[in-house]
């Protein structure tokens, strides 16, 4: 069905709109009709009697194209299930950074555990609700397994992503949008630092250091840099210490230096 744009309110969104993605739909308006947005009925006063669930980029493109209406799918969803739909739509996009994906998976785990308290570790599986779910074979076997089936990632990838966000703690928000957010190995290295050291490194990254190595150096936590000549000197000393007397004699003769004992 089609719904007038002024009837669709935009509530809480987990991710800012990407102008480049909006532009894709602006340049190819036919794509808007091929992929309907998802909305849910919205109670309250005003003309906007529906709320956006998934499809923010398509909705914004429709506004920019000055369309009157847009193709929609209307679903009856409570707040938690609406958030779950929004999260899953984002998780299926290829342009997510490793950090954004980890943040979405962490939020998905939080929402999923609210919806399935009986499946949460330590949950009451002896309750009537849990027993009924077991009989109907609808009790989830755990967040990672259910999420893997829903969004196509491996269970290990999901567990590692949630653990990464937990390890980064309050620094997660500051890291979003920085180059390091797109580098999984550097994020893992950051997560291994203690809170105080990581805070100093994130300060340097936020100040403009593009790579983790440079930020570590600037924060006084990296290995001191060694120039090329210093490296050559150390290599020569190492080779000299391994050479026997005959080889040393040949070397000294070859460079024209008088032999010294």
Order of strands in the sheet with most strands: 1-5-3-4-2
Strand count = 5
> Overall pLDDT, averaged?
84
State the shape: elongated
Helix tally equals 14
Helix content: 40-55%
Strand count, sense and barrel status of the largest sheet are:
5 strands, mixed
- Strand % is 5-15%
Overall structural class, as computed from helix and strand content, comes to alpha/beta
- Encode the helix/strand succession as letters: EEHHEEHEHHHHHHHHHHH
Q: How many discrete structural domains?
A: 4
Cα distance spanning the termini: 95 Å
Rg from alpha-carbon coordinates: 29 Å
> Which regions have little confidence, pLDDT < 50, spanning 5+ residues?
133-140
Task: Quickly list its features.
five-stranded mixed β-sheet, Conserved hypothetical protein from pyrococcus furiosus pfu- 392566-001, ParB domain, 261 residues, 4 domains, alpha/beta
What does this 3D model show about the protein?
- It is a single chain.
- The protein is of the alpha/beta class and 261 residues long.
- It has 4 domains: 2-77, Conserved hypothetical protein from pyrococcus furiosus pfu- 392566-001, ParB domain (Alpha-Beta Complex), CATH 3.90.1530; 84-182, no CATH class; 193-225, no CATH class; 230-261.
- 54% of the residues lie in helices and 8% in strands.
- It is built from 14 helices and 5 strands.
